[in-house]
């Protein structure tokens, strides 16, 4: 079994994809816009009037694939929309952790500054500009 996160950005998906490309080196695997759907949306369906918005996309960060969409495109995405979870990203070393943390924090909000803990040489928590929570961690030496 394999679980992949699916995030809805309510009209800001293109912006989010570009941010994760720049900040984390995300590689887009596929992207389909509402206007490219092989079937017309049913009348009144979410996204039906948003042809250029992202119906479905997936991208890879390291070895992890995330799926994303503009969803209903109502523009309400924010910290209040993503609750009860964080994405954890393992950095190669302290320098990599600092780079990742700074990139994710740009336009976001630091929840716990990056620093040493009893379980990691570097760990921190940040909510990015889209309201997605991230935990940046360096694995402790074996």
TrEMBL record:
One Pfam match: 3-dmu-9_3-mt
Top-rank lineage group of the source organism: Bacteria
InterPro entries listed in its UniProt record: Glyas_Bleomycin-R_OHBP_Dase (IPR029068), PhnB-like (IPR028973)
PhnB-like domain segment(s): 3-137
SUPFAM superfamilies hit by this protein: Glyoxalase/Bleomycin resistance protein/Dihydroxybiphenyl dioxygenase
Name this polypeptide is given: VOC family protein
């Amino acid at each position: 079994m394999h679980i992949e996160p699916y995030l809805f950005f309510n009209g800001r998906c293109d912006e989010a994809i570009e941010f994760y490309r720049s900040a984390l080196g995300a590689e887009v695997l596929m992207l389909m816009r509402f206007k490219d759907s092989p079937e017309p949306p049913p009348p009144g369906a979410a996204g039906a009037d948003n042809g250029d918005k992202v119906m479905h996309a997936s991208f890879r960060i390291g070895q992890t694939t995330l799926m994303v969409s503009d969803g209903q495109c109502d523009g309400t995405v924010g910290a209040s929309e993503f609750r009860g979870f964080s994405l954890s990203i393992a950095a190669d070393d302290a320098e990599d952790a600092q780079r990742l943390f700074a990139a994710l924090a740009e336009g976001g909000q630091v929840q716990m500054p990056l620093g040493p803990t009893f379980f990691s040489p570097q760990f921190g928590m940040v909510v990015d500009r889209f309201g997605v929570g991230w935990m940046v961690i360096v694995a402790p030496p074996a």
